[in-house]
Design brief:
The structure holds 2 protein chains of 2 kinds. In chain A, 29% of the residues lie in helices and 25% in strands. An 8-stranded mixed beta sheet of chain A has the order 1-14-4-11-12-13-3-2, covered by helices on one side. Chain A has a 6-stranded antiparallel beta sheet with strand order 5-10-7-8-9-6, with no helix packed on it. Chain A has a two-stranded antiparallel sheet with strand order 15-16. The longest helix of chain A is centred in the N-terminal third of the chain and has 31 residues. The relative contact order of chain A is 0.19. Chain B has a 4-stranded antiparallel beta sheet with strand order 2-11-4-5, with no helix packed on it. Chain B has a 4-stranded mixed beta sheet with strand order 3-10-9-6, with no helix packed on it. Classes of the chains: A alpha+beta, B alpha+beta.
Chain lengths: 312, 307
């Protein structure tokens, strides 16, 4: 879609010899335009919910909520959070999960630790601990195993014996690695609380955080969990809306200097918004272009198109 | 909580203790209540919206506490021997007592709450009656007050017709086949039914967290029937409610949230209040287990002639 958008933008700009924008400018404008439209989806979703509550939205083909929800759900991800300190975990970031977080939707915790120890030998996709009694600890398929030394996480596929667990990935590449096994049967939702309520909540008899009802507070990019037994990678899993990937129109330069689209480049990245948003992307990028080349007519044209779309 | 197999139910899947799941089907857990409420009664298209889970948890627990005080018939019973200090410390989950009994000779004898004081705090005084203080300005107290000392020494008199009564053991004489006793000045004539009980008596000291007994209870077995608040010492995993009260709990949470929320129309609050009240009445009737057959057994005695 990105090439089509760029061609349209250039076509509009060239129509009256308004000017030309370079690929790097186009990429910058594309990123901003995409994020703007992405964020608008959330406010649109809220408007649709309000319309539904006011009985102003129908079902079947009149269902306005579903298409918006589907676009948003494309950007949903679920990842294990990385431990920073005792009961503190990092927000999903490019460094930890590969993405920037737009909004945390849901945090799941596995507060019950079934076993901690160190592995005694290395077998591919297995956890071997000759001192363990895995059956006695109540470990079963589906429980989560974390290599605490490396931070890798895996799932138990079967309990081979009292000392061996079969895993769905190979996370133990050396012996004497610390590990933890966490019960998947107590996979509970952690609730976000605002920081000034946290002390009140922790000191309250009836509502203090427990393994059944854990909470977390957010400061900067750090999530602090209560009860404090939530302290290892593998115990916290976040479902979050990520930001769209940064679009990049890539090209090869021919001898006459004209850039030619080349999507085989490693850093190529198309827009992630659906195809129906192409015209929105064009008009938004044109707005930026109009400001860039100081052509108010371009900006006015694109804004008029956008307004026409919003108020048909 | 997920449904379990019959093997899990009867034998806990072979894991000791085997009785873990017995009777569990009657109850719904606190976790289930909160989850169900969030799923079914809260959200974008519901009356309850934008409420934190901890508020729902709070109201759920409060509703369970209220049910435990009067609606549930879940009386807890604890037997302890009353030691020489004549005190019975409340159970750790005690909220209120239902009945205090003496278990002796195979009989359970309900005890009477003493209308008089059995225990007291005291301050040390000098010979002019002035209270003595420590260096921090706090009044000094003896270990026991005089009334406590007398009770422990079994010298405190009782208005009840038990061993501590002033007439107990008093000398009399037999004349012409009849027993006669010295009457004290001011003695009451006739029987005061309020105090006409031979058994030991007790006082509840809520602040101190103990039941004080009179001296005749020393070394005897006391059975306390009491109600708790169902909070299971703060262990959320153990908090459960009988399924007969499940709908009431949801209604109670909904009402508490709506009634304290800004901008909710009064007719909605009133509707939720009525719903809550009706569901509570229904659940109380259900749990009363009023069986026609049992009523019939009682009714059969109504034509019996009193001889």
């Amino acid at each position: 879609m990105i090439n089509s958008v760029r061609n349209t933008v250039l076509s509009v700009l060239n129509k009256n010899n308004y000017g030309y924008i370079s690929p790097s400018d186009f990429n910058l404008y594309s990123q901003n335009a995409q994020v703007e439209i992405y964020e608008e989806y959330f406010s649109s979703y809220n408007k649709v919910i309000n319309a539904e509550n006011a009985r102003m939205s129908g079902v079947d083909y009149a269902d306005m909520e579903q298409p918006i929800a589907e676009v948003l759900e494309y950007f949903l991800r679920t990842d294990y959070l990385t431990k920073i300190a005792a009961n503190k975990f990092s927000m999903p970031t490019p460094a930890t999960t590969g993405y920037y977080t737009y909004m945390l939707l849901d945090i799941k915790c596995k507060p019950v630790t079934l076993r901690t120890g160190t592995n005694t030998s290395v077998v591919a996709s297995q956890l071997v601990d000759s001192t363990a009694l895995f059956t006695t600890y109540g470990i079963s398929a589906g429980d989560i195993v974390t290599n605490i030394t490396t931070g890798l996480v895996s799932t138990v596929t079967s309990v081979v014996s009292n000392t061996v667990l079969a895993l769905d990935s190979n996370i133990f590449l050396a012996s004497a690695n610390s590990y933890g096994v966490f019960s998947s049967s107590t996979n509970v939702q952690a609730e976000k609380v605002i920081n000034n309520k946290l002390a009140l909540l922790v000191n309250s008899n009836l509502t203090q955080p427990t393994k059944e009802f854990p909470v977390y507070a957010l400061q900067g990019e750090e999530l602090t969990f209560y009860p404090t037994t939530i302290s290892n990678k593998g115990q916290v899993q976040a479902t979050y809306f990520r930001y769209p990937k940064v679009p990049k129109w890539t090209y090869i330069t021919l001898t006459n200097g004209e850039p030619v689209f080349d999507q085989s480049q490693n850093d190529y990245q198309d827009f992630e918004l659906p195809i129906e948003d192409e015209y929105k992307l064009v008009t938004r990028i044109l707005q930026y272009c109009g400001m860039s080349i100081r052509e108010s007519e371009v900006t006015q044209f694109s804004m008029a198109k956008e307004q026409q779309e919003q108020n048909p | 909580m997920a449904y379990i197999s019959q093997y899990q139910y009867y034998e806990n899947g072979g894991v000791v203790p085997e009785d873990t799941n017995w009777g569990s089907y009657q109850f719904i857990s606190l976790t289930d209540i909160v989850n169900n409420f969030l799923l079914m009664y809260a959200g974008n298209h519901s009356l309850v919206n934008n409420e934190e889970r901890y508020k729902i948890l709070f109201h759920a627990k409060r509703a369970i506490q209220e049910l435990n005080y009067d609606a549930f018939k879940e009386i807890k019973v604890l037997e302890l021997t009353v030691p020489d200090n004549l005190r019975y410390i409340f159970p750790s989950d005690y909220v209120n007592w239902v009945r205090v009994s003496l278990y002796k000779d195979g009989w359970l004898r309900p005890l009477t709450e003493n209308i008089q004081t059995l225990s007291s705090k005291a301050y040390l005084q000098d010979n002019t009656g002035r209270i003595l203080f420590d260096q921090y300005g706090n009044a000094l107290s003896p270990q026991y007050s005089t009334i406590d000392l007398n009770r422990l020494a079994k010298t405190k008199k009782s208005i009840y017709l038990n061993q501590g009564n002033q007439y107990n053991g008093q000398l009399g004489w037999n004349y012409d086949g009849m027993w006669y006793f010295e009457a004290n000045i001011g003695a009451a004539y006739g029987l005061n039914t309020e105090t006409a009980n031979f058994n030991p008596t007790f006082n509840i000291d809520r602040k101190s967290g103990v039941i004080n007994f009179d001296s005749s209870m020393s070394g005897l077995s006391c059975i306390l029937e009491y109600v708790s608040d169902g909070m299971e010492q703060g262990d959320n995993s153990l908090i459960t409610v009988n399924k007969l009260f499940e709908a009431y709990i949801y209604a109670a949470i909904e009402y508490e949230i709506l009634s304290s929320k800004l901008g909710v129309q009064e007719y909605i609050v009133a509707r939720s209040r009525k719903k809550r009240k009706a569901l509570l009445s229904n659940a109380k009737i259900r749990i009363s287990n009023i069986h026609p057959g049992r009523l019939l057994m009682n009714m059969r005695g109504m034509d019996k002639q009193i001889k």
